[in-house]
Amino acid sequence: MTKIDIGIGAKDREHIAEGLKRLLADSYTLYLQTHYFHWNVTGPMFRELHLMFEEQYTELAEAVDDIAERIRTLDVYAPGTYKAFATLTSIEEVVEVPTAEKMVEILTKGHEQVVKTCREVLKAAQDGEDESTVALVGDRMSVHEKTAWMLRATSKS
């Protein structure tokens, strides 16, 4: 393969990719949590939450692919193991099956954490003049901010 020459220096590409790896790990962990909750939600809001969680994990499945491919575009290998994700993620693993209300709370916090991770990556991408990563991360922030809002709205009575 020929050497990469996309106008972003090797140091900047590495720095940006490291942030994207954390974003990938957070997104994948959130995907797993959302899918887990989709399978196990119960209660009066079952149908609404079951469908909402399905929409969310489907969107996240596409997102992890986009993020991993951006990492590869920067000529860095993307992590793809549970072990790697566990060390990179900022989102706590949930082992028990929480109540539906707690699921909404956990997922809200998860989406908010992804927004925080996006903000860190955004700064690195802006500093490295990587407009493609800026666009990707900006789009991800919008999705997670909106999803967190929708989850918060679901939990209000």
From TrEMBL:
Transmembrane portions of the chain = none
Keywords associated with the record: Oxidoreductase
Enzyme Commission (EC) number: 1.16.-.-
Q: Name one Pfam family in it.
A: Ferritin
From what superkingdom does this record's organism come?
Bacteria
Q: Does Phosphoprotein show up as a keyword for this record?
A: no
Q: Which GO terms describe its molecular function?
A: ferric iron binding; oxidoreductase activity, acting on metal ions
The Ferritin/DPS domain, residue ranges: 18-153
Family to which this protein belongs: Belongs to the Dps family.
Which PANTHER family does this chain map to? DNA PROTECTION DURING STARVATION PROTEIN (PTHR42932:SF3), GENERAL STRESS PROTEIN 20U (PTHR42932)
Protein name as annotated: DNA protection during starvation protein 2
Gene name of the record: dps2
